[in-house]
Design brief:
Blueprint (H helix, E strand, L loop, with lengths): L1 H30 L13 H10 L10 E2 L3 E2 L1 H10 L9 H7 L2 E2 L9 E4 L8 E7 L2 E6 L4 E6 L3 H6 E5 L27
Antiparallel strand pairs: 1-2, 3-8, 4-5, 4-8, 5-6, 6-7
């Protein structure tokens, strides 16, 4: 009988010690780590980029925003992001004003790239896809294409990058906060 009691107590004590050791190990792991910054992509950047790339070849049409009708630059960006629950305003300038600025050194696929192509700030927008390239609806080429940010035409006209909000947050179209249109050549210094 004494051995049965000893066996039961020993088994319970072993279980409790194992639980205590596990909890201690987990807590010790947390205590010694430094803060880890989470990378948040907008909304799922690979899905956004994949869908945007699937629209290559869709025709350019000023004022349009659907695969059937065609796209202008902002209609293309608005259409792609709306598929993933992100509401954007209609024009490139409005999209730039409604989305937070991103340092181009911290760019990620899915970020928006803005240009001055008409003498007006933020007159063209595309979606950054990585490796210094972006997908956009080009009036000059008459369709959705991929272009390099390294080409002199785009380098000379580049204004900056923005990152749309994630789904579940207030839509950028409904946001009352306006982000400054900062760029060395445009807006406040």
């Amino acid at each position: 009988m004494e051995s049965a009691i000893y066996h039961t107590v020993s088994k319970r004590l072993t279980s409790q010690l194992l639980l205590l050791a596990t909890v201690s190990a987990l807590l010790a792991g947390c205590a010694g780590t430094r803060e880890v910054k989470r990378t948040v992509h907008s909304p799922d950047s690979s899905a956004v980029v994949g869908y945007a790339l699937s629209l290559q070849g869709a025709r350019y049409r000023y004022g349009a925003g659907s695969p059937r009708e065609g796209f202008d630059c902002s209609g293309f960006v608005k259409h792609v992001y709306e598929k993933y629950g992100v509401r954007l305003p209609r024009t490139a300038h409005q999209i730039a004003a409604a989305t937070p600025r991103v340092d181009s050194r911290n760019r990620r696929p899915g970020d928006l790239v803005f240009f001055n192509t008409t003498g007006q700030p933020f007159s063209h927008v595309g979606i950054y896809i990585g490796n210094d390239t972006f997908v956009h609806s080009s009036s000059a080429k008459g369709k959705v294409i991929v272009s390099s940010l390294e080409r002199p035409y785009w380098l000379e006209r580049f204004l900056g990058m923005r990152r749309p909000n994630l789904p579940g947050r207030a839509s950028v179209a409904a946001s009352t906060e306006k982000h400054e249109l900062n760029h060395p050549r445009v807006g406040k210094p």
